[in-house]
Design a protein that fits this description.
cell membrane, transport, MetI-like
């Protein structure tokens, strides 16, 4: 345990030292400019103090980001638009919905590709080609098209109001973000599942043929269990992709809600500490989601007898 923690803490400590040094260097220009206007000289201790406590630094010091995270998560109501919990939930809802869509679509496409040669020859090249289009270019088009046809809110305002008594904030503008998240998450699942479903060797497949097993029986008894490790690896990549897609879509849409919107408004007003806090919140969310998939993976593979 200690052997694995010490290298990690060493790397973290090195990053902190480099970060604090970089914040002094990058924020020093403003301090020297202020001192020159006042006709004063700045000592090193004053330089360090001023560069680590600016309201709008070029590079915030780590403790400033931690303070911002504390203020915007613990000291704010979760319903406040200044709360990172509120914005994180908006992004998380789009990420999960897009991840579910993308994973379902990816698994279905992989099954079709493995069992149908026409789909293998036609769909796979298009799936690969789809990932060559930059998401930053296609996201605004998806937002505009879905806004034009009125397909933006999940369930619609009337249905949501009838169900909850009001329209929850996370349902507003959810669908374009979920579509973009699904766009980034489906491809890793397709590739991973195709490789996993094709992982049984000829000897295993021939053995089932000698039992006169149908394609469906071969799929459920051999191909699907063999693909499970590949599926979980793909899900981890797909979840990270879905989160990136949700944040990019929030950068492309009207900056109202979500971690992407929080970063965008921070850039409008030069609030670099706010941008970095939202970035760290997104990183923590991604690590948590991938960690949850990892725990489900370990439990599932242990139950299937694939790991000890």
């Amino acid at each position: 345990m200690n052997k694995s923690i010490i290298p990690v803490l060493t790397v973290v400590a090195m990053i902190m030292v480099i970060w604090y040094a970089a914040s002094i260097w990058m924020n020093s220009k403003w301090v020297y400019d202020q001192a020159a206007r006042a006709g004063e000289e700045v000592s090193f201790s004053e330089l360090v103090k001023d560069t680590w406590s600016q309201d709008r630094p070029v590079l915030p010091a780590p403790h400033q980001i931690v303070q911002e995270l504390y203020k915007s998560t613990v000291l704010k109501k979760v319903t406040s638009k200044r709360s990172l919990v509120f914005h994180g939930w908006i992004t998380l809802s789009a990420t999960l919905l897009g991840f579910i869509f993308g994973t379902g679509m990816g698994i279905l496409l992989a099954i079709g590709i493995v069992h149908n040669r026409a789909m293998d020859m036609s769909v796979m090249p298009w799936a690969i080609a789809s990932q060559t289009v930059p998401i930053i270019a296609i996201a605004p088009m998806i937002v505009v098209v879905m806004s034009t046809i009125g397909a933006t809110d999940f369930l619609g305002k009337g249905a949501a109001t009838a169900l909850f008594g009001y329209q929850p904030a996370f349902m507003q503008g959810l669908l374009p973000k979920a579509v973009i998240a699904a766009y980034l998450s489906f491809f890793p699942v397709v590739v991973g599942m195709v490789k996993g479903l094709r992982s049984p060797d000829n000897m295993q497949l021939d053995l089932l043929k000698t039992y006169n097993a149908s394609k469906a029986r071969t799929f459920w008894s051999l191909r699907l269990p063999s693909s499970t490790p590949y599926l979980f690896t793909s899900l981890k990549i797909g979840m990270a992709g879905a989160l990136v897609g949700a944040i990019v879509s929030e950068l492309s849409a009207s900056p109202l809600r979500g971690l992407g919107a929080r970063m965008l408004t921070g850039s409008y007003y030069g609030q670099t500490i706010q941008i970095w806090a939202a970035l760290f919140a997104a990183a923590a969310m991604a690590a948590t989601l991938v960690g949850i998939i990892g725990m489900i993976e370990r439990y599932s593979l242990q139950r299937m007898g694939m790991v000890k």
